[in-house]
Design goal:
By secondary structure, this protein is of the alpha+beta class. Helix content is about 45%, strand content about 20%. It is built from eight helices and eleven strands. The strands form two sheets. The chain has an eight-stranded mixed sheet with strand order 2-3-1-5-4-9-10-11, with helices on both faces. It is globular and about 90 Å long. The chain starts with 5 loop residues before the first helix and ends with a helix.
Amino acid sequence: MTKLSSSAVADSSGELGMKLSRVAPVAVLHEKLNEVVQEETSLRELLDEIGEEDNDMVEECQTELESLERRKEVIERRMMNAIVPKDEEDDGNAILEIRAGTGGDEAALFASELLDAYNKSAKGKGWKTETLNLSKTAIGGVKEASVSISGKGNNNNYNNDDFSDDDDGNTSNTGPYGFFKYESGVHRVQRVPVNDARIHTSACSVAVLPSPSDRATNQLLPTSEIRIDTMRASGAGGQHVNTTDSAVRVTHIPTGITASIQDERSQHQNKAKALRLIAARVYDLQREEEMKKRGAARNTLMGGGDRSERIRTYNYPQDRVTDHRCKVTEYGISRLLNGTSDDGLIPTFAPSLRTKAREESLEALLEEK
């Protein structure tokens, strides 16, 4: 009889546990659906027995049947959501990067407003934010910024017995990456600058990357594959600028990806931040390549991670925001940018975006069949 090593048994058990965790939500919901169907059958049998003699009883049964029908629709939607493979990174932390694009100072000012909106949303969720890199303009705009966002979402609610309202598209049960990931892309703003009378069109790009754990970072960045250069920091920043080699640039040799940090006075702190940032960029590239290998990077909502695509337009003269992926328009730009994690920019568009993404995932699954 062949004996399995303890590591092989552990790997097998871990794989089995992952498979069971995927089917458990569907099994629970299927059981609840059967319960609703049985109740529905019993009520219809009762209606046949009483006929039309007891109007009050008939009305009560019909009201209950309508309620059961709504519950059934919600359960069926939740089952469909549970069937779609979940992005394992949705519960994890994120690194959010913003860069001002075309439009000069106006683009940088809008990048600053977007960054404030994202920070406000993250803090509203009780998550921790840490600025890894920040380059500002003389008038307070943001040329580029990288922010780490860490925290936890709520548990999935497939076992929740409250079916009074559907939770389709709810962002409360995801972590930072799942909450922010649909913000990746080009954000275009149309408005009149304070020093002009004409409408200017500007843009900034957003990239939301899953943040690898410290252990994963060590695996992603073996010392043989990275080069670390130190240099003197430049620009405003105090006495240490141009007097100490505190700035750090890390290069991932196989891909050529780089990350430069000079915000901290300590070279050690700048190095730690640069390693976190480059690990996220390398991991994101690996995920994108893996998606393409699996044929998952089709012309879909998330596509192949193409962040050069315009995803949203902020039109200030008309006070509207239009998301071009889900074709949804909302009015009140200031309200959306200054809103909370419950009623701000992200939760306003997330339900439609998540629904579209799930529909595309289901289509892909059907095509594979």
